Input
Amino acid sequence: MAMSVVDGPRMVWTNGTEAYENMAPAFRENLGGDDDARRQLLAKFWCKVLWVDPVTSRRIEHQRVDAGYLDLSEAYHDSVEEAYFRSGDCTLSAEGHKVGGDYFWRPPGWVHKAWSDGGFDTIICMEGEVASEESGRVSRVICADDHAGHQDRDGVEGGIGPRGYVRQLESRYMNWRSFDSAVVGLTAPELLGKTLSANADTGACTVLVQAPAGWSEVAPTVPRERFIVNTAGSMTVDGQELGECSLVRIPAGEAGPTIGSAEGVELFIKVCEAT
Output
């Protein structure tokens, strides 16, 4: 599969009420409440689907919710879920209060519920079927309220997988530092990073990368699929300028594009296992 470029600002926001009509049964039937309650909830939800893999069910989305959003039930996913919050506020019954710069990596099965007083903006990823992350297909399973913060998948406790359970990582308190360029696949010496989570077995990781104004390089070929989302600032990809929350996917073993930024950029980079 060839490299993909998604121009996020050119995409139209899809409201949750529209998405509800075409939602997969594994989600649609597990939102809680009745039909009217679901539609009222989803009216506060907005989404741009940046990437979806129909084979594994992996999804990467730019999401925002309006003030007063409140999930109708506690639930768990069979898939790993990770999110990087760009702004706003979100409280998760399993992971606590999130603001801009916060991140979580949730293993499958952990019960949670989300609500927001003022609304929020986030990049959210559902891992889908990836054996090395102990992640299954994207789903949503309703759970009892008193199960919040516990693992219900298969009715057992435990099973955090090789990245552990990153409940709340406040990236604003982390130092920018050098990173493994052979894994991430960006080599310019002026780049600095913050590792948000990493698979201890495969080296797959999610990293924030800070690039200064004027940075440009040809992304080298690496044996890992990579997803790059610019969470703050514009980036250029083979001369095409892309506003915030665009996505570049570089397949494993494929030559990367020339990527850079005239004014500086923060990149959310998802690096998969080596093939």
Notes: The chain is about 10% helix and 40% strand. The longest helix spans residues 35-42. The chain has a mean pLDDT of 94.
